[in-house]
Amino acid sequence: MPSRRDLLLATAGGVLLGGAARRALAADAGSDTDELGTLPGKKPLIRHTWRPPNYETPLADLVPAFTANESFFVRYHLAVIPQIDVDTWRLKVGGSGAQKPLVLTLRDLKHDFKRVTLAAINQCSGNRRGLFTPRVPGVQWGNGAMGNAEWSGVRLRDVLARAGLAANAVEVVFNGADLPLLPATPDFLKSIPLERALDENTLIAFEMNGHALPQWNGAPARLVVPGWTGTYWVKHLTEIRVDTVPFDGFWVRGAYRIPTGAFPGVRFKTQETPETTPITEILVNSLITSHVSGAQVKHGAKAELAGKAWDGGAGIAAVEISTDGRQSWQAAQLGRDLGRFAWREFRYRLDTSKPGALVVAVRARSRDGATQPEKLTVNPGGYHNNIVQTVTLGIV
Amino acid sequence: MRSALAAAALLTALTLSCAPAFADEAAIHLRDGTARDLTAARCAICHSVDYIQGNAPVLDRAGWQKEIQKMRDRFGAPITDAEAQQILDYLAGSYAGKP
Description:
heterodimer; A: mainly beta; Sulfite Oxidase, Chain A, domain 2; Immunoglobulin-like; five-stranded antiparallel beta sheet; five-stranded mixed beta sheet; 6 helices; 32% strand; globular; disordered N terminus; B: mainly alpha; Cytochrome Bc1 Complex, Chain D, domain 2
């Protein structure tokens, strides 16, 4: 295991870019102190905080179908982030609900279980928190606390089966190697309901877009819970615990909670109270990647709006565009289906025949009928901002 | 609650062992004001002080008070009552509604 000093040294942040390249589009991103910064192994990203590192993917890097590892967003709660030696790394699987506890090496994971690859959005629960009105404290994320990647690993349920799942198991708890600086600070552990743990799409992933997981995205292995927000995708996995009682930890009981009944999405019933319930699935949403507000488009020229739409796993049924103040909506053209947990590209030919302001609104609809709301549901955590996005273009 | 002395010792230890991170973070400049150094010292035990700048547009005095209380109660920040008052005065004076 790495020493405390090694752990501390590993928390070293990135390098300040010359001139503190302020984003031209800070207003669009909703962030007030946006600067680009570079973590080792990453390209320049929007730095929200140095330590623990919280870096957002710039809009331009959300254009490709798959978000590159080097530009994928980085989100940590705790500042002690070890650089793990894959040869000495071990994954413990146990708990009161596991009859045959086991310890796995990375080689065991890769050789003893069936390999699975799937495409999925990883989206921070607080993505777009910085765009809330009224504003909410927390990391003031714009649109880029998300990305789409191809994750490879093994099914969690295959590993749990080998650990001898007990009949009275209720939740599975995950711990990563990252640690708080003070003993009094709650370590970052998360739990998921047993049924989600046994879902065929829930993975212990060790590759991202065909490469070993990057350090800042959870090396050497992380949990992948397709359709659920990023808080459950525990990085640097070290321990999986099958519990027979609901997990009593701060990061489930006291954080990442939404008002009960305020939002759609599957319920995490063993952690629900009459007042609040854990955030679970990603809500249907879309993002324009081709243009930002204030962009100028040449009068009479060909111009195409493009972006992405996604949801919590039903898949995208349609993306609609309005250019008349949301009175009428036209279908956008959908791109290739990369899987129901991935985003779907959309394109729409803009009418540039009239000079002046062109207000474009986009809304996505999922295959389960859910659509993006017009109004924000205010909540203390600043979660689930999936309201219809508009951009104002200038036809000149 | 940990004593202020222990907190100071811890911070010193961190500053030594975490030199690269702190050197980079030194690019962050907090506005002048009474208790600026105390605020920076206590907050930076666990996180860089750009958290203050990032939340400035969002928080007023009451909001900062809640944040300070959260850091003490939930995250175990070693801050005494007297220090919390000074830190609140600094944040409310220099970083309330100001990016």
